[in-house]
Amino acid sequence: MYHDVTIVGGGCVGLSVAKHLSELTDLDVAVLEKEHHLAAHQSGRNSGVLHPGFNYPQGSKKARFAIEGTSRMKEYCAEHDIPCDEHGVLVVAQDDSEEARLDDLARQAEANGVEYELLDSQTEIREHEPYAAGKAALYAPEAASVDSQQYVYELAREVQDAGVDLYTGYEVTRVEKMAGGYHLATTNGHFEAMYLVNAAGLHADELAHQVGVGERYQVVPFRGEYYEVRPESADLCRTMIYPTPDPELPFLGVHYTRRTDGKIIVGPNAVLAFGREAYDNTDINPRDLYETLTYEGFRKLLSSKLMVKVAWDEINKSYRKEKFTEASQRLVPDIRSEDLQQSYAGIRAQLVSDDGELVKDPLFVERENAVHILNAVSPGLTSSLPFGEHIAETLAEKI
Ligand SMILES: Cc1cc2nc3c(=O)[nH]c(=O)nc-3n(C[C@H](O)[C@H](O)[C@H](O)COP(=O)(O)OP(=O)(O)OC[C@H]3O[C@@H](n4cnc5c(N)ncnc54)[C@H](O)[C@@H]3O)c2cc1C
User: Fold this and answer.
1) 39, 50, 332, 355: least surrounded by Cβ within 10 Å?
2) Is residue 89 a contact partner of residue 390, using CB atoms and an 8 Å limit?
3) Closest Cα to residue 30, out of 238, 192, 185, 256?
4) 243 lines ligand 1 (CB under 6 A)
5) Which residue ranges run through the membrane (predicted)?
């Protein structure tokens, strides 16, 4: 099968690239997705929050894509009838050092043009969230909750209407460079393409390595597990309650999110997954686990005492519900273990460099008629429209 452009991966990023390519060019575009259903991985297993951009440094790619992405996603959801509730987020500080960090966030929000309000007493916090505890908070009204699965399916419908061929149940097993393009072996036959977009999420590094790209990086899978607040206790959180982010730590701590279906989810934690798709804490993929444990970058990452402590805390939250409950009680002291029932999990495709750094910014590599998206890092859902457009423009320029 021949197509001018073949995109591997039908998550929100791959489909957004397809959408923008079909709008910008007349090329014959195909998307190859290994699963029979869409949104089976990161794009359908997340918190579904549109992050308006107050916690990313001014001028960074993350800030630019998140700010633009939030407003474009809201428009897109309104136009396409996708559930999206703009009820804002409350970032709560528990002590003086966290309160000082809130001031940094406020300055960043100001610089990025993101709306915010600083609340400096428990009384003001309780006007927003009657059960939240803290001595100060930043309220960002533009944060919103979206149904990420409906969003992915809508993108898929839209690109198919625009003439893109979407193949589900086609796993790319081998990528090879050939004269004038690429040859792709899949579980359902062979494809050829002049241009390749690698948007394979948790497997993007594996495909890139096959053609000698991004060899100093590897995906290390970090599982994020959620609990759901039982419906009878769901009034413990009205909107979204977040801890103050710690710039030293790679992931935000456990937080509360009201989803568009009214469920309150608590999480995610961030524990090393024993496989790229090991969604349960008893799942093990020996090959993936071996690759992670023998990866130089991972070993260097774990040489930091801080990372070992974080890893230990997160493992405890995964295997001991009382530890997860304790983390949840930091924000909402009235929550009890029996209010929480186990829910779904997602796995972050966290890119780690061979010198042990967690790559924090979005990263893509252009090479010989191809774009490899190696790090569509969170808030990748929020950013997916401008990020996908940027990749499509990069490719259109080559052509
Ligand atoms: C727990 C968690 C919470 C998050 N919360 C948020 C949030 O609240 N807000 C936010 O903005 N972002 C959030 N994110 C980040 C966001 O979900 C991701 O950045 C985004 O979904 C990445 O999209 P993607 O298309 O790159 O990846 P994916 O959705 O993983 O898509 C990649 C696709 O490629 C397919 N694929 C892989 N290998 C192959 C192959 N060999 N052949 C064919 N197909 C293949 C996969 O099946 C998959 O469908 C969260 C992520 C996680 C894990």
Assistant:
1) 355
2) no
3) 192
4) no
5) none
Same domain, 347 and 259: yes
Both 211 and 279 in a single domain?
A: no
Q: Are residues 227 and 174 in the same domain?
A: no
Residues 325, 368 within the same domain: no
**C-beta 11 within 6 A of ligand 1:** yes
For residue 40, report the distance from its CA to the centre of ligand 1, in Å. Answer: 8
Q: Are residues 195 and 302 in the same domain?
A: no
User: How many whole angstroms separate alpha carbon 67 and alpha carbon 51?
Assistant: 8
| Residues 327 and 179 grouped into a single domain | no
The helices-and-strands tally (H runs, E runs) of the chain is: 11, 20
Per-residue pLDDT of the chain (399 residues; tens, 9 = 90+): 999 999 999 999 999 999 999 999 999 999 999 999 999 999 999 999 999 999 999 999 999 999 999 999 999 999 999 999 999 999 999 999 999 999 999 999 999 999 999 999 999 999 999 999 999 999 999 999 999 999 999 999 999 999 999 999 999 999 999 999 999 999 999 999 999 999 999 999 999 999 999 999 999 999 999 999 999 999 999 999 999 998 878 788 899 999 999 999 999 999 999 999 999 999 999 999 999 999 999 999 999 888 888 888 888 888 999 999 999 999 999 999 999 999 999 999 999 999 999 999 999 999 989 999 999 999 999 999 999 999 999 999 888
CA of 11 to the centre of ligand 1 (A): 6
Which residues span the domain enclosing 128? 89-141
Do residue 137 and residue 17 come from a single domain? no
Q: Is 145 in the pocket of ligand 1 (CB under 6 A)?
A: no
255 ligand 1 Cβ < 6 A? no
